[in-house]
Fold this sequence. Notes:
It is a single chain. This protein starts with a helix and ends with a helix. The chain has helices at about 5-20, 25-45, 45-65, 70-80. By secondary structure, the protein is an all-alpha fold. α2 runs antiparallel to α3. Helix content is about 85%, strand content about 0%.
Amino acid sequence: MDLDEVQALMERLYGEQDRARGIPATVAWLCEELGELAQAVRKGTPAQQLHELGDVLAWTASLANQLGLSLDDAMDRYRSDPTP
């Protein structure tokens, strides 16, 4: 699945409720998921880490959708300039 497909899936599954929740709440959920990922990296199993990576990606896609931005476009800079 590519990034555009991830965004389309999240839009189909949760787009309406994500927009109703709003951007500030989505950012808060994303931060919470990042914390859960950090904990899984420190103490979790590979299965738990994979689960949390999926959650972070899903919430990132939701945020991008609400902002009207493309994750694929956001990653373009790494294709041409891999320096963060």
